[in-house]
Description:
single chain; Rossmann fold; globular; alpha/beta; ATP binding; 46% helix; P-loop_NTPase; disordered N terminus
Amino acid sequence: MNETATEIPLIDTNLFITVSGPPGCGATTLCNRLSESMDCPYVSGGDIFREIAENRDMTLTQLSAAAQESDEIDRALDRRLREIAEEWGMANKPFILESRLAGRIAGDRADLRIYLDAPEEVRKERVENRAETKAEMGVREVGEAGRYQSYYEVDVDDLAFYDLHLNTARWSQKGVFELVRAAIEQYDAEADEGAFETAPLEIEQ
Length: 205
């Protein structure tokens, strides 16, 4: 039986949380639940990417192809994400930022940085009903990894600085949410001995 909105427990927190991971990792599902539970805004890099595509009258596939040919699109997206991170990092209000680089872009502004993943075959099954095909998903992952390394010298497979890393194939959607909820509710700023340092990304204007 599916959960109704009233069954999702409220979370009393002012944390700025980032969620990252590859396509099909379950980030959208988790962020929607967290946004409702925390009663806070949620911004997705994917939504911004789709807005850029619509503004340019392009499909997601066309925009992804264009992004591989020029850094202008990626940098425009990253600049917007950084602006959002800067704004909410000073707000002392709950907020969720989701994108492949959200944790790195937000850096020390984020209170909790989460990385979600799942085996490739599981993720492919999850995206089979999306506009993006499985093949396109694979191409996008490889292309993004190469561009991030080229632009920022970022290895997307380096997960050491994340505070929480979950294989979402091991739990149900509710289970993933409950694990993250527990991490948020059990967070104690006074007992926090320190997050891993994250070098700020040099995003060109």
